[in-house]
Amino acid sequence: MPRLSTILSFVLAFLGSRAIAAHNDSYFIPSQDGSRLFVMRPSLHDRRIYPDAREGPYVLSDGRTVDVATTFPMSGLYDVATLKPLWTWDGYAYQYYFVISDDLSSFAVVQSWALIRNDEALMFFHEGKQVASYRAHELVRAFRTEPYLESGRDDFVYFPVWYDEMKVEGQSLALTTMPRRYLPFYRESYRFDLATGKMTEAHVPSLWLMFGLPALLFVATVIWLIRRARHRRGIGIKPGAP
Q1: Residue 166: in which H helix or E strand, if any?
Q2: For residue 83, how many other CB atoms are within 10 A of its CB?
Q3: Amino acid 130: pLDDT
Q4: Percentages helix, strand, coil for the chain, rounded to the nearest 5?
Q5: How far is residue 84 from each of residues 55, 57, 79, 105, 204, measured CA to CA in Å?
Q6: What is the pLDDT of residue 222?
Q7: Nearest alpha-carbon partner for 114 in 136, 137, 145, 95
Q8: Helix/strand/coil for 228
Q9: Tens digit of pLDDT for each residue in 91-135?
């Protein structure tokens, strides 16, 4: 019986985690002055797959309570006074894979599982339209697989976790990849223009400096030691003599 209860507990916990992961819940980001509201809603496709996603009522900055499903048909930016869309996006991103500019006009989305097939890993949008994207191998230049990257899970899909941090700094997006296991000093870092998606800075560790130069120094040291030993033998110096 203890073993059966343990198995049941594991199954319930697993199903519970699956149910949480399946929810594409709505979330909201108001502008600083409260006049506009960014709404992230599940796409039409996702709403068919996950009809139990939590959307609930939302209280606007002026105190009105609105029904999310009937007021905001799609993700996008809405005028709070009129509730009319300023622009829309037929997509959805979990909040931890998403950042948006302070003026709510541009946003970026990462795909956590992109390394599996070298898919689009980072996408940029301006007013709901995609303006740029980068594939996984453009950002993760080396040591892309286990054991160098830890494995994560999202809806039963296991994948190498490739990005560590993504944050907005003014009009820029700063992104860093995960430090590699066994090689913690190796990680890439980038900076992008958030409105256009253009890469403005890239800091990628040099594999030559990491491995080539130490190997060259090692070979040079071995050659020097061999020549030194031959020279000492040639002039009759006993081993161990100064």
Answers
A1: strand 163-169
A2: 13
A3: 97
A4: 30, 35, 40
A5: 19, 17, 6, 16, 44
A6: 66
A7: 136
A8: helix
A9: 999 998 999 999 999 999 999 888 888 899 999 999 999 999 999
Measured from the Cβ of residue 15, the count of other Cβ atoms closer than 10 Å reads 10
CB within 8 Å of 102: residues ≥ 6 apart: 32, 168
**12 vs 242: CA distance, rounded Å:** 74
Q: Name the residue type at position 234.
A: G
Structure tokens at 93: 């991103």
* Amino acid of residue 137: H
How high is the pLDDT of residue 86?
97
Q: Check: CB of residue 241 under 8 Å from CB of residue 228.
A: no
Closest CA to 192 of 91, 119, 115, 106: 106
Q: How far apart are the C-alpha atoms of 54 and 49, rounded to whole Å?
A: 13
